Amino acid sequence: MKKQIAVIGLEMHCELKSNSKVFSSARNSYSEIPNTNIAPLDMAFPGTLPVVNKKCVEDALKMSIVLNCKQPEYMFFDRKNYYYPDLPKGYQITQMTNPVGTCGKIEIEVNDQLIPVHIHDIHLEEDSASLDHFFDTSNIDYNRSGIPLLELVTEPCFHSANEAVAFLEHMRRVYQYCDISEADTKKGQIRCDVNVSIMDEDATELGTKVEIKNVNSFGGVHDAIVYEIERQMKLKEEGRYNEVEQETRRWDEETASTIRMRSKVDAIDYKYFVEPNIPKYKISKEWIEEIKGKIPRLHLERKQDYINNYGLSSYDAEILVKDKEISDYFEECLALEIDAKSASNWITTQILGYINKNSLTINDLYLNPKRLKDLIDELNKGSISTKQAKEIFLKVIEEKKEVKDFINKDNAQISNKDELTKIIDEILANNQSQIEEYKNGRTNIFDYFVGQVMKQTRGKANPVLTKEILTEKLK
Amino acid sequence: MDKSIKELHELLKSGQITSEDLVKESLKKSHEIEDKYNAFVTICDDATEKEVTDSLVSGIPFGVKDNYSTKDVLSTGSSNTLKNYVPFYTATVVQKLFDAGAIMVNKTALDEFGMGGTGTTCHTGPVLNPWDKTRMCAGSSAGSACAVAAGVYPFALGSDTGDSIRKPAAYCGIVGYKPTYGMLSRYGLFPFASSLDHCGVLTRSVEDAAIVCDIMKGKDECDMTSWDSSHIHLQESLTGDIKGKKLFYIKEICDLENYPNANEELKAHLENFNKTLDLLKEAGAIVEKISIDQRLLNAIASVYVVISCAEATSNMSNLTGIIFGPRSDKQDVFEMMKDHRTLGFSPLIKRRFIIGSYVLQKENQERYFRNAARVRRLIVDKMKELFKTYDALILPVSSGPAKKLDEDKDIIDKNTSVLEEHLQIGNFGGFPSITIPNGFVNDLPVGVNLTGNCYDDENVLNIAYTLESMMPYKGQIAKERE
C-alpha cells in the first residue's frame, strides 16, 4: 500500500461574550440553574421576533477581520429548518448565503514551525437549548437557547491531530485576546465537528469524508482524529476501503471510539432561506475600520516580537503570551523601560508563581508594572540584594505598600566602598594564616573570606563589591 | 355602538354616556353576534370600563383578532394547536390601544393562523356574513369584519398577509386598512408569512381607521422591521381635497371584456366600479387606465402561494405542543410533535405546509421559491415605477359580493383569479392599502381598494376619505337580508 496521508477539516463553534443573547434580551450568562436566563423568544412563544445584538455582529466582524476573511457588503441571516426538541422555533437563525467572513487565511505555529490554515467561512448564529437525558425522561434547559455562537469552518487543510489541536488552541487564544469569548471548553463554550479522510500521498482526489459531530474537548478532538485515521487506515490495509462510508459519526468518550450516527444519504435538508424578520443591514467601510482599531496585537505577533526584538527565549516568550493580561503586563513593563529580560524573569518566575499559588489574575496583583520597576531599580542600584528583593516583592503585595517603604538603613545593602574596605581590612587582619594558605595556592579559600564578610555584615554587604575588594587585597 | 369613534368620544366627554354603558352594550352585542354569526373565540365578560381621557379611543370597546398575543387572555390563532394557550405578554399594537384607554371586549375568530380566505376554517367553526347568513365573510379577519359590520364596536384589529383585512372588509361593507409594512409593529402577532404579514384595522369609516392607526403606529424595539413614523399624522391628513391627484387602474383586471363568461354579479360589480371612478373625477382627480403585462398579473397567485406557504411552514415549526398548546401523551418526543401537529392542524393548513416544504427543498428551491422571489421583485418594481407617476392604484375588490358558504372554498376560478388575488400586490411591496365600501350588488355590499406607494399612507387615506365622503356607505351597519 502507498503511504497514506490524512486530511482533516474542522468546524469550531465558540460561544461569544455579550450582555444579552444574540436575538433576544435575555442575559447571556452561564448558569447552573436551568431556565433562569430566558426571554419569550428563546422558547419561541408565538409572535416573538428576533432583534439582532449589534455587539455580537461587531465581534463576528472582528473575527472575520482577524482571520483575513472577506466581509460581505450586507449583513443578513438565514433560517436553518429542522425539528429537534432543543430547537424551540423549529429553525436556527444562522448565516448560510452570506456569512460574516469567507475565504480567510492565517498562520499558526506547530512545533515552532508556521503552517497556513485556510478558512472556508465564519458565521454568526444562535445556540440551541441543552438537553439532559435521564432514565425515562429528558429535561430541556433553555438558558443556552439563543446564546451567540460563531462557527468557524476550515478547509480540509490539516494532516494530523496535532495540527488540528494546535489550530484550536491558537483560535482559543485569539478569542481570548480579542475579548469576545472566554473560550472555556469546560463550560461547553467550544464545541467542534471534525472531518477526516485519508488518501494516497500522491493522490489528487480526497478520500471518503467522515464527519465526527459534537466533540467537546481538545483532547477529544485529538483522540477522535487519531482513532478515525487508524480505523480508516486499517480498512484500507485490509482492502476494505469501500466500507468507509460518507457518514456522520460521534465521539464516544467512554469507549474512546467513534460511533456511526447516520449516513450522508440520510442527510437532513435544512431548507435554508433568508430570515425575513431581520432587515438587510449595510456594513459600512467606516464601521470595519473602527472595528479594526479595536483588535489588539495577537499572541503570535507578540511572541515573535519578544524573541526577535527583545532577545527572549522562545520558551519564555511563549509563557508571556499565553495569557493576554500577562503579555499586556509585560508590555507595560517595556513601556516603563524595564529591561526586557529582567521583566521576563520576574514575571515568569516570581509573579506567575505567586498568582498561580494564590489563584489571582495578574491584574489583581498589587505589584503593578510601576512597582515592579521600583523594585528592579533598587536591585540594579545595588541598594538591595536579590534575596531582599524577593522578600520586598512579597511584602509589597501582602502589605499593599510601596517598594520604598521597605528600603531603609537597616536592611540597605552596604555598597559604600570605603565602609566595606574598612570591614574587610579588619577581617583580613584577624585571618593571617588563611591569607598565607591562599597565597600558597589554596584559592578556593576565597569563598571563606566572602563568607566572613557576609557574617560580619549580616548579609548586607554588596557581594559584587565585596569580591572586587577582596581580590584586590589578596593580590 | 353604531357610532364613529369621534362621536362616541364626544358623548363620553360630555357625560351623555359612560364607558361602563359602552362596555355593557358591546358585551351584550357580542353575545348576540356570537349566537348568530359565530364571530368570536373569546368574549371578555370581565371587561371593565376605563377612564375617559383626551385620547379619542379612551373608554371605548374594541375587538382583537385571535392571532394577537394578549396577556392572560386565551389566544388561539383559531387553531386546535393553541386551543388552550394563554400568553404572558401582550402584542405591541394591542398594548398601545390599552395604554390609550381602549377596552378589549372580545377575541375574534379567523381562518386558522390567518391561512385562508373564507373565514370558515376557524377551530370554532365558520363565521357567517352579517348581511346574509348563507354567505361567508371572507377571511382571514372574518370575526373582526363581522363584528365591526354588525356594530359590536367601532373598530377591531385584523391582520393581512394576502388580503385578510381588505377582502372581508369588502364582503362586510366596511373599511379595512393595512398601513405600509413596518408602520405597525408585528411583535405579538402570530406569524403566518413574515415578509407579507401586516397588522391593520377594520372600521366603519376612513377617519376611524386613521385614528386607530395613529395610536398603534411607531418604531418598536421588539420588531426590527418597524420604522419611525412620528412625522406621519394620518387623521390630520384627511383634508377631503384630492384635486390633481393621479390614480390608475389596470385594464387587464377591470375591463369586462376580460371575462367572457361573466355572471350578472361580476357585471354589476365592474359597472359599479366604473361609477366610483366617475366620482373621483368629479372630485378633481385624474384617473387613467393603464395596461400591465398579463403574465405578471397571472403570476400573482402562484408567487403568493409559494412565498406564503414556505414562510408559514417555517414560522409554524414552533407548534409542537412541547412548550405550549396541548401536549401529546406519546412517549417519544418526535412522536409527540407529530401527534400534536397531525391532530391540531386542519387539512387546509397541512396542504399548505406540504407546498411550503416542497418549494423549499434543495432540489426545488431555485425553481419555485427563488423564482417566486424574483417575480415578486418584478411586480413590486413595476408598481413602484407606476407610483412615480400616480398617487394610487384603484381596483375593485374580488369578483363581486360575498360568496355562498356552500360554494367554492379557496378554489381558484381561473377566469377571475386575478380579480380575486390582486390585493396580494399590496403585501408583496408592503404598500399601504385600504378597502372602502362602494355600493351593493344583489343587496350585498361590495368594496373598492386603493393602494399607494410605501410611506405614502397619508395620501392614500386622504383619497379614500374623499371618495368615502361622496358615497352614502360611511358608518353603515349590516342589516341581515331576509
Please give a quick description of this structure:
Chain A has 475 residues and is α+β, with helices and mostly antiparallel strands.
3D structure, described in words:
The complex is a heterodimer of chains A (475) and B (482). Chain A has 475 residues and is α+β, with helices and mostly antiparallel strands. Chain A has helices at residues 54-66, 161-177, 218-237, 285-292, 299-310, 314-321, 324-335, 340-357, 369-381, 386-399, 417-429, 432-439, 446-457, 463-473, and strands at 4-15, 74-75, 78-81, 91-94, 101-110, 113-126, 130-133, 138-141, 148-154, 190-200, 210-215, 247-252, 257-263, 273-274, 281-282. Chain A folds into three domains: 4-290, no CATH class; 299-406, no CATH class; 417-473, Arc Repressor Mutant, subunit A (Orthogonal Bundle). Chain A has 14 helices and 15 strands. The radius of gyration of chain A is 31 Å and the shape is elongated. The model of chain A has no long low-confidence stretch (mean pLDDT 93). Chain B has 482 residues and is α/β, with parallel strands linked by helices. Chain B has helices spanning 5-14, 19-37, 92-99, 142-149, 166-172, 206-216, 251-254, 264-282, 294-315, 333-344, 347-360, 362-389, 417-421, 424-429, 457-469, and strands at residues 40-43, 61-65, 103-108, 128-129, 132-136, 155-160, 175-178, 198-203, 246-250, 286-290, 392-396, 433-441, 444-452. In chain B, strands 1-3-2-6-8-7-12-13-11-9-10 form an eleven-stranded mixed beta sheet, with helices on both faces. A two-stranded antiparallel ribbon of chain B has the order 4-5. The A-B interface holds A 40, 43-52, 79, 81, 83, 85, 88-91, 138, 140, 269, 271, 273, 276-279 and B 68-69, 75, 77, 82, 85, 87-89, 91, 186-191, 193-195, 221-225, 310-311, 313-314, 316-320, 322-324, 333-334, 337, 357, 360-362, 365, 369.
